[in-house]
Write a structure and sequence with these properties.
The complex is a heterodimer of chains A (347) and B (614). Chain A has one domain: Thiamin diphosphate (ThDP)-binding fold, Pyr/PP domains (Rossmann fold), CATH 3.40.50.970. Chain A is built from twelve helices and 13 strands. Chain A is α/β, with parallel strands linked by helices. In chain A, 52% of the residues are buried. The radius of gyration of chain A is 22 Å and the shape is globular. Chain B folds into four domains: 200 residues, Pyruvate-ferredoxin Oxidoreductase, domain 3; 183 residues, Thiamin diphosphate (ThDP)-binding fold, Pyr/PP domains (Rossmann fold, 3-Layer(aba) Sandwich); 71 residues, no CATH class; 112 residues, Rossmann fold (3-Layer(aba) Sandwich). Classes of the chains: A alpha/beta (347), B alpha/beta (614). The interface between A and B is large, with 57 and 72 residues. The structure holds thiamine diphosphate, iron/sulfur cluster and magnesium ion (MG). Thiamine diphosphate binds next to helix 2, helix 4 and strand 5 of chain A.
């Protein structure tokens, strides 16, 4: 009889899932929007690291950027909160279930204006989750007003220049005590992939500011967040190689050129310095470098700061190992004797 | 100083010649931060221990030290524990308010005061008892720094002597107050109380026309404030995530909970917490965290007051529309804005019932006593998860922060109800689910929790338009269907909220409708109306919103129904207007008090008499 045709084996990651299972719904964002590239990098990095999508919870605020969790990790639960207040929703969810891996998507408006307070406090608590700012210097969803990350002198499509100085969310995050801070560009696949993987491995809060051009409202000449401008002014700090815990370190690089950071989960981030003497474990120097770059009109990208030692908020709370949300009644309702004791004290 | 300054008692017109037993009120006027709280609690507790029904109300300023404070203790053998306007015994410790306090008294009242204030010169129709506080405190409290605090205990001794309160009970109350371990504090205060007692015994031949006598109406009862009762309710409801931002009068709710959870909610084996309590950066965050936690499957709560409710508005709309359970405790205070932050009001009713933009409606529970604070808090957590929506437990400063007598709380017998949650096994069996589909006819869909290990478990929760499958939609029919299901869900809630308490008077033509702490004044007023004017009145106490059919029946039965509100605009009446038919609305009359003090029976009675023309 005819020979049975065996389909070619599907390509799967180390937990047996295909890349398709990390995808989400079809994007409704503009073609060419930087946010779409970021979604692709998220799909790729979660797939490559073999993260169990059932343990992931996606969060966002409001904006074009905040819509994107619907376009990746379709097997994970998601919560689209209100404008600027995704950190609160994420914090509550992670308190309820500490075994979830949280990933939050926000915009520069969502983070640096309406949400700046919650952003600061999320950092202060070192809530263990990934926080991505899809930074285009404008409010995309409300059609192109300046945001608080717009550079001084950058113009709107109408030609109106911005006359207020920008917030540098990375510098502020470092100042407020963030434990992993990186800046990338939606067009830099390799760098963003390595940064996302590092964030997945990091046990505290990861703040990633990704310059993500808005092709519809902020990609013109005069804008400092256009593809062309960013390509021209980007200063890549390092070459990054992320080596997951389940892979052997094979590449042999001579000592001294590479800094090897051991992550909490056993993986390694290998950082090869480019151009300048920059140490991402030295917060003070990193802040100085950002100041200098700003003065020169450069956009520094790469890992800006990494601290693997600081405890997370969940560790400080000393919660049970299991999620408190689903503890059985016997462990959350004290006994009759306890009530009797309390009543006695009140007599 | 030690001269007798008691004015003649017998000659007072209208004064009873025999002392009034177990029916009086004492007001202590001090400045806050002077440590009078101990003396006041001990005095109240002493009466309680003698078996006499008591209530204590603290009227304090929004300030840490130095402004006037009044504490009123009412003893009533009839069991009336609402506020009483008339003061029988004034303890005037605050020079600044003493004059006004004295001028406000009805003739025949007694004034215990700090001798140098010379209050006896103000009126001749009162009984004056000057006490040399400074002279008495020095020998019993050698440490000059402590004298300011200990001095207050002297008036406890004086009052005990004048009212024949058993000093044994004062001592017991002191031990209760400080605990067995603080023997030094007990001794010091006891010395002061005794000094006051002895001074009064040796100085004043006549007492006051009031007397405390032992009775047996408080046996087995507890004393607790409503906030602590809510905290206990939350703990026994199995709350797991608590988020808050400090605000009077709700702070002590969470602070009590922190205290109890530390003692009773740590795993006996590991010592680890089976709960998280987080002080958020503001109420925008505290409600967001509570909703995030509720979404992830926790029993979550937050506690706040009016200003916090205002800030929570947008998130509550999300909770309503995305159908996320949480419990919000609103301990109301006087608004608008900062208002009178340390005074009581029922000012958040309409805002809260309809909180947030668009068509929203929320279930509200109205406890009126510590017993109900406990039981309704437990019920609120079940209700929130059963109906997947934010539930508000509405109390006020009077209930939340004052000490109340209560029956000991019964242990919750009903097992915890976590509502409709699908597990991975359920999904295997069902092959999938649609988050917002009304499969059971009660308007409530089934939900899955993040972390559920199943390819069909994921769901995207959003505040934007969504269909049954939780997918984004802007379609007219999807929107209308979803909003109509939410209305249906609200109608089903109507069958499950705590029912009102109704007491029908036989021939009553009028009735009262009230909620929360208005209860005490209304019940006492019903008795006053009957005893003093021969007017019968029925009474329905609402225990929840949405309203139930009982309310409609009650209004139909009566010619006129007085809707009692502790706010300026008649908010309960307003809320009823939104829902009732015109012929029922026509029967409603508004009875409002909004001065910031707990409502008293006489105010209610006077209003009715003015309206009913007797
Ligand atoms: C409370 C509130 N105010 C205003 C808005 C309107 N709004 C929607 S998105 C947005 C700005 C989004 O900008 P950004 O976060 O930078 O996202 P982008 O669209 O640029 O990705 C605003 C102001 C809102 N949704 N909620
Ligand atoms: S408007 Fe801008 S930010 Fe929004 S989707 Fe289009 S390109 Fe992206
Ligand atoms: Mg933007």
């Amino acid at each position: 009889m005819s020979a049975t045709v065996t389909p070619p084996p599907k390509k799967v990651n180390h937990i047996g899932l295909e890349v398709l299972q990390y995808k989400g719904g079809k994007t409704t964002l503009c073609a060419g929007c930087g946010h779409n590239s970021i979604s692709e990098r998220i799909i790729e990095s979660f797939y490559e690291l073999g993260i169990d999508p059932y343990t992931v919870a996606k969060f966002s605020g409001i904006g074009c950027s905040s819509k994107s969790p619907a376009y990746f990790l379709g097997l994970s639960h998601g919560f689209n909160a209100v404008h600027g207040r995704m950190p609160a929703i994420a914090t509550g969810a992670l308190l309820a279930n500490r075994t979830l891996m949280g990933i939050g998507l926000s915009g520069d408006g969502d983070t640096a204006s309406i949400g700046i307070g919650q952003f600061m406090h999320l950092i202060r608590r070192n809530m263990p989750m990934i926080y991505i700012i899809e930074d285009n210097g404008v409010y995309g969803l409300t059609k192109g007003q300046f945001s608080a990350t717009a550079d001084l002198g950058s113009t709107l499509k109408s030609g109106t220049p911005n006359n207020l100085p920008p917030f540098d969310c990375c510098a502020l995050a470092m100042k407020w005590g963030a434990t992993f801070v990186a800046r990338s560009f939606s067009g830099d696949k390799k760098q963003l992939n390595a940064i996302l993987k590092t964030a997945i491995a990091h046990r505290g809060l990861s703040v990633i500011d990704v310059i993500s051009p808005c092709v519809t409202f902020n990609d013109h000449e005069g804008s400092t967040k256009s593809y062309a401008y960013v390509k021209e002014h980007e200063e890549v700090l390092q070459e990054l190689d992320f080596v997951p815990s389940f892979e052997d370190i094979t590449v042999d690089i001579p000592e001294g050129e590479v800094m090897d950071v051991l992550m909490h989960d056993g993986s390694h981030l290998r950082i090869r310095k480019l151009q300048r003497d920059f140490d991402p474990t030295d917060r003070f120097k990193a802040l100085v470098a950002l100041e200098e770059a700003e003065a020169k009109g450069e956009i520094l990208t790469g890992v800006l700061y990494l601290n693997t030692a600081k405890p997370t908020f969940l560790e400080l709370l000393d919660l049970t190992d299991e999620p408190v949300a689903t503890l059985p009644e016997a462990r959350v309702r004290p006994s009759r004797t306890v009530l009797d004791q309390v009543m006695d004290e009140l007599r | 100083m030690s001269t007798l300054e008691v004015s003649p008692v017998e000659s007072q017109p209208g004064q009873p010649s025999k002392p009034v037993v177990n029916d009086f009120s004492i007001q202590i006027a001090t400045v806050n931060g002077s440590g009078s709280q101990t003396a006041n609690s001990v005095l109240m507790r002493s009466l309680f221990q003698m078996g006499i029904p008591v209530s204590g109300k603290n009227m304090f300023p929004s300030n840490i030290a130095g402004l006037p404070t009044w504490f009123t203790i009412r003893a009533s053998k009839y069991g009336y524990i609402g506020r009483r306007k008339e003061i029988d015994i004034l303890v005037a410790m605050n020079a600044e308010t003493a004059r006004e306090d004295v001028m406000k008294l009805d003739g025949g009242a007694a004034v215990i005061y700090d001798g140098p204030l010379k209050l006896n010169e103000l009126r001749s129709d009162l009984h004056f008892f000057p006490i040399p506080f400074d002279k008495l405190v020095a020998p019993v409290c050698p440490n000059a720094k402590l004298r300011k605090l200990v001095r207050n205990m002297i008036y406890d001794g004086v009052v005990a002597r004048l009212l024949s309160i058993d000093m044994e009970e004062v001592y017991k109350a002191l031990v209760k107050q400080f605990g067995e371990r603080k023997a030094k504090a007990v001794d010091l205060n006891w010395g002061a109380a005794k000094a006051g007692f002895e001074f009064a015994a040796g100085t004043f031949a006549d007492g006051v026309p009031y007397r405390a006598e032992r009775m047996n109406s408080t046996a087995g009862k507890i004393i607790i404030d409503g906030n602590a009762a809510c905290a206990l309710g939350a703990m026994f409801a199995g709350v797991t995530v608590v988020t808050w931002y400090p605000i009077t009068p709700s702070s002590s709710l969470v602070e009590s909970l922190i205290g109890y959870a530390k003692r009773f909610r740590h795993d006996p084996d590991t010592g680890k917490a089976t709960y998280a309590i987080v002080q958020a950066e503001d109420e925008l965050a505290s409600i967001g965290m509570a909703l995030g936690a509720g979404w992830a499957g926790a029993r979550s709560m937050t506690a706040t007051a009016g200003p916090g409710i205002s800030l929570m508005s947008e998130f509550i709309g999300l909770g309503y529309y995305a159908e996320v359970p949480t419990v919000v405790f609103d301990v109301e205070r006087v608004g608008p804005s900062t208002g009178l932050p340390t005074r009581t009001q029922q000012g958040d009713l309409i805002t809260t019932a309809l909180l947030s933009h668009g068509d929203t409606r929320h279930p509200l529970f109205f406890p009126c006593s510590p017993e109900e604070c406990f039981s309704m808090s437990i019920e609120a957590f079940d209700f929130a998860e059963k109906f997947q929506t934010p539930v508000f437990v509405m109390t006020d400063l009077d209930l939340g922060m004052n000490n109340w007598m209560a029956d000991p709380f019964p242990y919750p017998e009903k097992p915890i109800n976590r509502g409709k949650i699908l597990t991975a096994e359920d999904l295997d069996r069902l092959g999938g689910f649609a988050r917002y589909k009304d499969v059971d006819g009660d308007g409530v869909g089934w939900r899955t929790l993040p972390g559920t290990h199943h390819p069909k478990a994921a769901c995207f929760t959003r505040g934007s338009g969504h269909n049954e499958k939780a997918q984004y939609t802007e379609r007219e029919d999807d929107y209308i269907n979803n909003m109509d299901r939410l209305v249906h869900k609200f109608e089903v809630m109507r069958q499950h909220v705590p029912e009102p308490v109704v007491s029908l008077a036989e021939k009553a033509r009028i009735g009262f409708v009230a909620w929360g702490t208005s209860d005490y004044a209304v019940r006492e007023s019903c008795d006053q109306l009957k005893a003093e004017y021969g007017i019968e009145a029925s009474y329905l106490r609402l225990r929840a919103y949405p309203f139930t059919g009982h309310l409609l029946d009650f209004i139909r039965r009566h010619e006129r129904v007085y809707v009692v509100d502790q706010n300026r605009d008649g908010q309960l009446l307003g809320l009823m207007r939104l829902e009732l038919d015109v012929e029922l609305i026509a029967k409603l009359r508004s009875l409002r008090y909004y001065g910031g003090l707990p409502l008293d029976a006489r105010t209610v009675t006077d209003h009715i008499i003015a309206q009913e023309g007797k």
